[in-house]
Amino acid sequence: MTIVGIAILGAVGTLLRYLMSSLIFVGAEFPVATLLINATGSFAMGLLHGVAKPGTFVVLAIGVGALGGFTTFSAYALEASRLLLAGRVGVGLTYAVVTPILCILAATFGLWIAQGRL
């Protein structure tokens, strides 16, 4: 049952990622869609782990499935690499540095909200 839940919610997360990236201007010089998807997914992961018991079906299905399908960290790595290889070093390095910092802050903010600190 857990595997089925992860698979179904993984498909849902993937579709949500596609829809969100379609709604955000993707032709920009800076990969805004991927940055916002990763930050949103990190925030949701923080909330999830702040309110749910680790290892439960809910955490596995939503965390591994939905959020695993939704976040695009592998796309982040590819986009940063492409920017660097295209000689756009300033944009590539900025993107590579800003993304993990923003995502860690978003996850922390999600945990704080879940724990009632905000």
Shape: globular
How large is the radius of gyration? 15 Å
Euclidean distance between termini CA atoms: 35 Å
On the 0 to 100 scale, the average pLDDT is 93
Structure description:
With 118 residues, the chain is mainly α. It is 81% helix and 0% strand. The protein has five helices and no strands. α2 runs parallel beside α5 and α4 packs antiparallel against α5. The longest helix has 26 residues, at 89-114. It starts with a helix and ends with a helix.
Short characterization:
This protein is an all-alpha fold. The protein has helices at residues 2-23, 32-51, 57-70, 73-85, 89-114.
Write the SSE topology.
Layout: H1 2-23, H2 32-51, H3 57-70, H4 73-85, H5 89-114
Helix pairs in contact: 1-3, 2-3, 2-5, 4-5
Task: Please describe the structure with a list of short key phrases separated by commas or semicolons.
mainly alpha, 118 residues, 5 helices
